[in-house]
Amino acid sequence: MPTTLLLALSEGHHDVPMSVTLLFTGILVALIVSLALEEKIHAKKSLIVGVFAIIVLLLGMVFEVVPGSVPVHVGGETLTLPIYIPSIDWSVIAIILGSSLFVDVTSKSGLFTWIAIKLTKASAGDPRKLLWFYGLMTVVFSAVLNNVTAMIIVGSLTGVSLRKLGRAEMMLGFLLVEGLLTNIGGLLTLISSVPNIIVGTAAGISFVSFFIAAAPFVVVATGLTIWMGAKLFKIESLSTDEERKDALEQVSAFDENDGIESKGFFTFASVMLGAFIVVIATTSVLPYVKELGMGYVAMTFAAIMLIRYKSSVDTYYKAVDWDLLGFFAALFVVIGVLEHAQVLGLIGQGLEVIIGWGDVAGTGAILIASALASSVTDNIPLAAMLAKILSSLGTPADSPLWWSVVFGANLGGNITPIGSASTLVAVTIMHKNDLKISFGGFVAKAVPYAAIQLVIAVAYVLLFLG
User: Fold this and answer.
1) Are residues 96 and 328 in contact, defined by beta-carbon separation less than 8 angstroms?
2) 391-450 residue pLDDT tens
3) Which of 295, 321, 336 is nearest to 146 (CA)?
4) Of 5, 83, 223, 272, which residue is the least packed, with the fewest Cβ within 10 Å?
5) Which residues does 18 contact at the CB level (< 8 Å), separation at least 6?
């Protein structure tokens, strides 16, 4: 969420009549229902959310819950922008656009095919082993990169590997598990996700302490999620010696160098991918770059790679998922107006009552409630609001309530496809591979995983972090 809106959230908005807040809460519910019925409505998600953005902006002006414009100070000058411009988190838009372009161009070098075939060979053609390899890679990438970039890279590799093995029918299961694992990997360190940074800073939790506390859960949740994915999607190990022999012969015949047209470009792309991962992972500590953010890094690396195809860059622009970018832009606008309409404040009031139940009951309830709230709205302002509430109540640094917010805000993204950017990217990759899955279809498949993850999270926080 943009800094402007986070500051507004932390300092509080002007009073809004409860009737108006409830009206906008109803609009949020209507938006969720509309997205769930996306296939029946026969409309793209960007258009659905775009229509709601238009409606809430107009109603926001009618009921005077949002200003018509916002002053933005740049280099000593003051610019006046329409409220919907600073509402959009342009960093997220830049990360998705830059990462997508970078991955698309890098794939032309044959690098991703090379990595995919290497992993496929390491699995000896066993689908379950391959699921474990990709699952673990997803968690590691999500911990050191942002979740969106991790999903884009791993999703690209998954498609290549499964097609090479002739197992394209398993792609839905692989991509769903990987999408869920991005949010688990986002729990691993203090800087793996923005909610971690917000809550960890407010509670005074150090980087090392955060890692030590979160790592056991991440290990258990990762293993359980991959195991469940294998069971529910029937991704079985090869059972007979003949199957294993045939699979080994099949993967042995794969040549990882087949897709490499230029050794020079392959080497350059390999170096750039390594540099991309390192720079993205260290953006928060790099001089100058940390001020520009990960969106700048993603766009810079995309531009560097596009130079290779400087005379035909328009072909890559055409391949960009503009529906996904439009969806995010419109969703940020809707969330921005809902913040001003005190919808999140209303949620916060309810959570504040729950906190009063005490450490045990309150911790479990807050974790579940924050997960449910994060599944339908941005977890960043929600985490900021809850951190503010806990701080104002004088919550000690060792209270499990802090961890209930961290776990809930991250794991809530596994309930719906709009719960986190990475799960939405996973669904988009599914659609690109002609795997049709609706909002409701995603929820139906993801809820069993999310439910078990949340139960384990509650038990873990109460038993080991309390």
Assistant:
1) yes
2) 877 788 888 989 999 999 999 999 998 888 889 889 989 988 899 888 889 999 999 999
3) 295
4) 223
5) none
Give the pLDDT of residue 94: 87
Reported as a single tens digit per residue, the pLDDT across 13-39 is 557 899 999 999 999 889 878 877 776
Q: What is the pLDDT of residue 306?
A: 94
What is the pLDDT at residue 378? 65
Q: 8 pLDDT band (50/70/90 cuts)?
A: very low
**Cβ atoms < 10 Å from Cβ of 35:** 23
- Domain ranges in the chain? 90-192+207-319
Residue-wise pLDDT tens digits, 343-365: 877 866 776 777 777 667 888 98
Would you say how long the chain is, in residues?
466
Q: What integer pLDDT is reported at residue 226 of this predicted model?
A: 97
The CA distance from 351 to 127, in Å, is: 43
Whether 390 and 402 have beta carbons less than 8 Å apart is answered as yes
Long-range CB contact pairs, 8-17, < 8 A, 24+: 8/339, 8/340, 9/339, 9/344, 9/381, 9/384, 9/385, 10/384, 10/388, 13/65, 13/339, 13/340, 13/342, 13/345, 16/63, 16/65, 16/340, 16/341, 16/342, 17/63
Structure tokens at 139: 């968690």
Mean pLDDT (the chain) is: 86
| 324 pLDDT more than 90 | no
- Give Cα 265 distance to the centre of its chain: 30
